[in-house]
Amino acid sequence: MMKFIYVVPLLGTLLLTGCGGGGGDPGTCSGSPQWCAETGGVGSAQIVPPVVVSTTFVRVPDSDVLTVTCPDILALNNGDKVAAEASAQGAYQRGNVGLDGDKDGFACNGVF
Known about the structure:
Structural class: mainly alpha
Mean pLDDT: 78
Largest sheet: none
Number of strands: 0
Order of helices and strands: HHHH
């Protein structure tokens, strides 16, 4: 069994080695972006911005919200399925529960 006096320096060395000290990519912080930003890291944090997909959809007019169908919503959004899904969900939340045929809380899923 190893004595405690030998374990502490060994653990300290392992911790320091695993925290950006040289290796195959010296000078680059290998921790999380938050860790690198908080500690200054050995290099700069490599923060990758999230990918944001922006879809503009046509909102179902209030006058049609209770009578509109899934094919109507697809046509209203010029065949754009992603936009139609957002538009259908909006109509569903505004009261057209008939758009949710399978009663799972999502309007027109499986249709588009």
